[in-house]
Amino acid sequence: MSTNNSNTGHSNTAPSPKVAEFIARQHKMLIGSEWTEAVSGSTLGVINPATGEEIARTPSGDAQDIDRAVSAARKAFEDSEWSRMRPAQRERLLWRLADLMEQNIEELAEIESIDNGKTAIVAQHVDITLAIDFLRYMAGWATKIEGRSVDISIPYMPDAVLHGYTRREPVGVVGAIIAWNFPLLLAVWKLGPALATGCTFVIKPAQETPLSILRLGELIQEAGYPAGVVNIVTGDGAVAGDALAKHPGVNKLTFTGSTEVGKLIGKAAMNNMTRVTLELGGKSPAIVLPDADITKAAAGVATGIFFNSGQVCCAGSRLYVHKKIFDNTVADIASIAEGMTLGHGLDPTVDLGPLVSQKQLDRVCGYIDDGLSQGASIVTGGGRAGDSGYFVKPTILADVDHNARVVQEEIFGPVLVAIPFEDTDEVIRLANDSPYGLGASIWSNNLSEVHRMIPKIQSGSVWVNCHTALDPALPFGGYKQSGLGREMGAEAIEHYTEVKTVLMSV
Ligand code: NAD
To answer: Taking Cα atoms as reference points, which of 146, 211, 186 lies closest to residue 500?
Structure first.
């Protein structure tokens, strides 16, 4: 990292011919086995956030298209080769899809980079590698879905010989609505357990980033999934997303996005008694205790907030450092931030790409200005970088009031607020003083103190000496306004199945 972050020059940014050809296509969405336009014929533009230019158009689906997709998924669930498939065959199909993703990983990474802005290196080695590992992890679950056998003691049937057991059955048609920050990975987090358990799937990608999901649809067909098992409807959230959330033919909704929209999805789900899981926003604390290794903590905290330009639901966006080491730690993080190169995601020398959209650029810069107006001071960064594309300098704000919006609200950009503390009780109180509860990290080698703190922290994940470390076998999700339910791990399987109780008098 040699260049400072005012550099947003674009060199080495031409996509490969294969990706250029894919992006230039007339894009369609996948319903049943057909690639189709929206019934209305309308389309939405896709913008390259590094340049602000429109690069493609995708169908703008609405309620009619959602209805077609849910019908195709219902048919596949109830009456198709898929509904009769043995678990071991589902396992093999998931492996085949993972293999195809691996064979096409560079192409998928380039598409993700051009569509979302993130660097192709991160897309390949983080997003898509994780997605492939996750599919293989979920493939293993297909043959391990089990019920229980239960000894029965019903008092009013004393003479009966009873056999009681439970079955875990696929919940049915799954409706997935996802955000734009990790498009393929978020899609696969939902697709993996749905396909492992034998559900069928309708996904509405974020309107900002539909392209990699459409390419995934081609790989799903190539893998050999029967028609209607996976359906992709592109379109606007308030139109296609809303129609999917409200569709009575959907058995389970799984959503990743903002808390505001998550509440709408939750209410729509309750109206139909649709099962629902919500992965929502966060304002996760990173807590540096006085004994921490400052160099390691600074590097970890910098990655925890600036990775993916801060557009990470569990980004460590609130930094609490013991006052004894506050100045040195914050100075080290600032120095890392100032060494980051900003630029086009296809340039291999770039550390941070742009934010995803003009809307996100305005939102993040608006929060920085708001923080300054409420008395915060800038340690480094402080606004937009360059004048084309949606780049924001990695920013650290200090001298912030804990009630300020920049401390309480999710910014979803490369903005860290740094706050000193004096003792452990105080920092636990501050860390929990948030409507969110997605993740938290503690930086220390004092394991006794760390163990005492972990149960008191209100968040779905606690990382020690790392931040945003995710494994397919570990559940991920939020306390408080950060969501409902868990993704990944055995917990995900529970959310994609219903429990059926069987009692036989034999
Ligand atoms: P968003 O809630 O605006 O959009 C998310 C998805 O919901 C998009 O596909 C969008 O089209 C759709 N949508 C929008 N309005 C809708 C409506 N009325 N009905 C149905 N669907 C609708 O969120 P965003 O701005 O795209 O993403 C950023 C947010 O997502 C942040 O708050 C972030 O923390 C959160 N997020 C959470 C996780 C997690 O796992 N917890 C992961 C990534 C992002």
So the answer is: 146
Q: What contacts 194, CB < 8 A, 6 or more positions away?
A: 174, 176, 200, 201, 496
Task: Return mean pLDDT, the chain.
Answer: 96
Ligand 1: residues within 6 Å at CB?
Answer: 177-181, 204, 206-207, 237-238, 241-242, 245, 256-258, 261, 264-265, 279-282, 313, 410, 412, 438, 483
Tell me the per-residue pLDDT of 126-151, one tens digit each, with 9 for 90 and over: 999 999 999 999 999 999 999 999 99
CA of residue 59 to ligand 1 center, whole Å: 19
Mark whether 313 is an active-site residue.
Answer: yes
Asked if the domains at 29-44+52-84+145-280+483-502 and 285-472 fall in one CATH topology, the answer is: no
Phi/psi of residue 489, nearest 5 degrees: 65, -175
Alpha carbon distance 411, 393 (integer Å): 14
Averaged pLDDT for residues 476-490? 98
- Token pair, residue 229, equals 């098992």
- Where are the domains positioned within the chain? 29-44+52-84+145-280+483-502, 285-472
What mean pLDDT do residues 47-66 have? 97
C-alpha 254 – ligand 1 centre gap (Å)? 11
The active-site residue, picked from 107, 110, 279, 487, is 279
Q: Is the pLDDT of residue 472 over 80?
A: yes
